[in-house]
Amino acid sequence: MKCRVCREPAVVDVRRHNAAFCREHFFHHCEEQVRRAIDAHRMLAPGERVLVAVSGGKDSLALWDLLLRLGYEADGLYLGLGIADYSDESTVYARRQAEAVRRPLIEIDLADQFGYDIPRAAAATRRAPCGACGLSKRHLFNAVALDHGYDVVATGHNLDDEAAVLLGNVLRWDTGYLGRQHPVLPSAPGFVRKVKPLVRLAERETAAYCVLRRIDYQVEECPMAAGNRHLGYKEILNALEDRSPGSKAAFLGGFFARGHAHGDVGRGRVTGRAHLQEVSARLELGHAAGRAAALILLLRVDVDFDAVDGLVARPGDAHDERARLALAQEVRGETDAADLQEITTFHALPLCCADSSTRGRVLDCRFLLRRRPTWMP
After folding, report:
1. Nearest to 361 by CA among 118, 126, 117
2. Which of 262, 292, 307 is where one domain is finished?
3. Euclidean distance between CA atoms 209 and 32, whole angstroms
4. 179 close to 264: Cβ distance less than 8 angstroms
5. Are residues 306 and 165 in the same domain?
6. Tens-place pLDDT, residues 7-59
7. 12-14 and 19-21: which strand pairing?
């Protein structure tokens, strides 16, 4: 097996390209795939400050290294999730890579700074650990980027990850998620842009990149991810890829080019107070926070920010801009129905339940927001 470019002995084969590469030309291949993804979807602009969400795994560490090799100003953000030995080991790999690339690594520990780790959060909210983890990550990525002046957050979602998500959305014909699935989530007031530069690279390629670049990474899967349905979708897609190399790339790339490009799949628009009050009545929540929480349940809609403004704070309460933005983020973010129920409970119960034990239990979910709203008892 020889390198497609220089005809020297190859070290990696990429079946979907019907090609093999030597070490240096494989690096060039990975850089080129990331560059093409960035250019095609207008992810990054020269001079922008990039915050890479670093988990200690192969994808995020490879992404950080590739962005730096491509000349971007990229720093790291690591969230300590408190998942026993797995998190301890992941921290070591993230710090080691920060030292190797000589770039800052911002570290946030959920237990120390928010009073919860993911295992306890999952138990307290009675939900799957991946849901609690994903929700807290999305809020914190954005909050840290805003606080430190970054223009964009980059995550290590690769071709396999995005193809598995797409398969799940297609199987359920979840038009709301299909309408939002894209490598770029544009910026908005209070929200930085979020991008996925690895969408053209497969999991096997990022692993090979780390090995050849001598980047140590967390090899083990998260122990709390057992049973995650996307792992099953990946197995299905891997079987298809074995029989027909390039299937994943064709599936995902075709969706971006011909499916998502048509836009507004299953999406509506909510405007005006009357509609919000109608939804609120169904939930039997009459106060302003209840109307805002009801709006979150309408996941498959765009939000008129003017309609949301003023609904979070009741008359006489101090308006909390961050609370409003956190609410709006749930509508425009990547959230499932379980996430929405938790947020609804979190915002509504403290205002309409006098029972102290209930209030205390709900307040234990405060890690779901960047900070507790000023109207919260």
Report:
1. 126
2. 262
3. 13
4. yes
5. no
6. 999 999 999 999 999 999 999 999 999 999 999 999 999 999 999 999 999 99
7. antiparallel
pLDDT band at 285 (very low <50, low <70, confident <90, very high): very low
Closest CA to 311 of 365, 347, 342, 282: 347
Burial class (CB in 10 A: 0-12, 13-18, 19+), 47: exposed
Q: Strand pairing partners for 270?
A: 303
| Residue 320 CA from chain centroid, whole number | 25
The beta-strand segments (E) located in the chain are: 12-14, 19-21, 49-53, 73-80, 105-109, 152-154, 184-185, 193-195, 268-270, 301-303
Question: What is the average per-residue pLDDT within 247-264?
Answer: 79
User: Which is nearest to 285 in space by CA: 342, 364, 345?
Assistant: 345
* 356 assigned to some structural domain: yes
Range of the domain at 81: 28-262
Helices 321-332, 288-297: axis angle to 10 degrees equals 20
> Same domain for 87 and 206?
yes
Task: Give the pLDDT of residue 298.
Answer: 32
pTM: 0.70
Taking alpha carbons only, the member of 344, 268, 347 closest to residue 304 is 268
Distances (CA, A) of 54 to 58, 62, 255: 9, 10, 27
CB distance 278 to 298 below 8 Å: no
Q: How many residues does the chain have?
A: 377
Domain boundary among 262, 291, 317: 262
Q: Which tokens is 346 given?
A: 């979190």
Closest C-alpha among 209, 261, 264 to residue 69: 209
Q: What is the DSSP string of 86-126?
A: HHHHHHHHHHHHHHHHT--EEEEEHHHHHS--HHHHHHHHT
Q: What is the count of structural domains for the chain?
A: 2
pLDDT digits (tens, 9 = 90+) for 336-377: 434 433 333 333 322 222 233 332 322 222 223 333 333 333
